[in-house]
Amino acid sequence: MNLKRSTLVKTIGLLGLILVFIFTGFTPTTAQSKEKPIKLVFSSYLKENFPNNLTCKFWMNEVSKRTKGRVKFTTYYNGILLKGAESLPGCGRGMCDLTLCPDAYTADRHPLSMVQSLLFMTDKMDSYLRACYRLFTTEPLLIQEFTKNNVHFLVEIPVSSNILGAKQKIDRLELLKNKRIRAMAMTANVLQILGAIPVGLSLGEVYDALDKGVIDGYSLTDFTLAAMFHLYEAAPYMIDTGMGQFGGMFFVMNKKKWESLPPDIQKIMTEVAREAIDKHVALYQKVEAQMVDRAHQGGAKVVILPNKEKERWKKIAGPKLWKKWIKDKEAKGLNGKYIFNRWKQIINEENKSSTYKSAYQVFAEKYGVEH
What we know:
single chain; 371 residues; alpha/beta; 6-stranded mixed sheet; 5-stranded mixed sheet; 14 helices; globular
């Protein structure tokens, strides 16, 4: 009798539950679909439509799409949430979940990772990006540097190769001697070795300094940024010296936030980060093509040093810069020699498959160069 009553109660309960599903429209599937999305905050110190931010937007859009809306993003640009130097430590403290941080602003926080800012290693953006990804995602010493800052590395997002802009044509090393050139950090070291006089200025100060004769030229930026700031108006010569890539920006996530994400979402984010490498190169080259036209219309004159002259500059300054970097790291108890050799090995491997065409090459093909 008790068994029959128990069975009856269970049956009535099950029927009641089914009726609730029918009349309320509730099902296990709808419960999952109404799961609250994971909300992440992205901060950038750059203007919203700057090419590097466009790559971050691509990443965020793809992550939202591939997770079917399970991840949503709130974005802050132009340093509204965090300024450039605040980006890395701010993200580590949880002031945002994701950020784009310029490596040079926080070099002391990740000294070995600055190996990717050494000049005369490569002038190919595509091989540079692939080499950065390989090194930063596989080398324990560098992963440890990001971990110490409480961030997880996603991908490097750089500008293109270092430029030498000048008021007068410089097509051989002797013409650089005693020229006052805007530069800082490693670029300043290189220019000093080559005989120039480095002058520390922000990029926003360069135009007026050129116009007033305070400096004779500028470096520590690329063709695109130089064109965006109309620097060719004050210094018409835009010179490819072969110094190459000079660093970039880390796209990182707060480590605690990363570790809190479901494994399938982490997998999607990692996949899209790898895809962002080719996406960034394509986006940047599109913008570079526009800047090539702008520079030409503004009277810019492009100079591409002959390979023999580029090699001369590299031979004089490159090894001295590299040895100094290694010595400085070793003096702090860091394995600089090992990291440099790994970086050089990876860069050389990636350079073999590069298809990148620089802004200087694009300008030369379209408008010619100075001889």
